[in-house]
């Protein structure tokens, strides 16, 4: 299926989810993550959820990371360049919503992408090959292209994999894993 069709389909499916269902499924996703071999790293990049878009709630993941004393890196969008600027989450980090209702750090200690070892990625849909459909702005593809080659890329989804996304671009960066409430998909080629 084409990205535009999948984007519309999964936005609609998410809008049908209740707040209670989102909370329950998000907790199941966080519990599934605990089974992955990803907890020996130091720097974890985590998106903060857009409640209005009914995204996976990443608060349980944030609590896990903080409980394991990990460095949490939060993105801030730079709309003119379609780039993400990444800041270390500290006790003094001020979070505010931007014009797209994305909660973001206002400033702080900027972290070089080369330090980031694990990235949790928002998405609308993904396929059995690790390709994903986002909102179409390319923020994450551009960000991931600048990360180190061995960075772990983990998608989070309420829904299971599609068979195949047909219109993949050369600049699309595939996932290493995608975690849903029931399954963990591994796309590692090794």
Automatic annotation (TrEMBL):
It comes from Autumnicola edwardsiae. It catalyses: (6S)-5-formyl-5,6,7,8-tetrahydrofolate + ATP = (6R)-5,10-methenyltetrahydrofolate + ADP + phosphate. Keywords: ATP-binding, Ligase, Magnesium, Metal-binding, Nucleotide-binding. The keyword Ribonucleoprotein does not apply. Its cofactor is Mg(2+). Pfam families: 5-FTHF_cyc-lig. Its EC number is 6.3.3.2. Belongs to the 5-formyltetrahydrofolate cyclo-ligase family. One of its GO terms (molecular function) is 5-formyltetrahydrofolate cyclo-ligase activity. NCBIfam families: MTHFS_bact. This is 5-formyltetrahydrofolate cyclo-ligase.
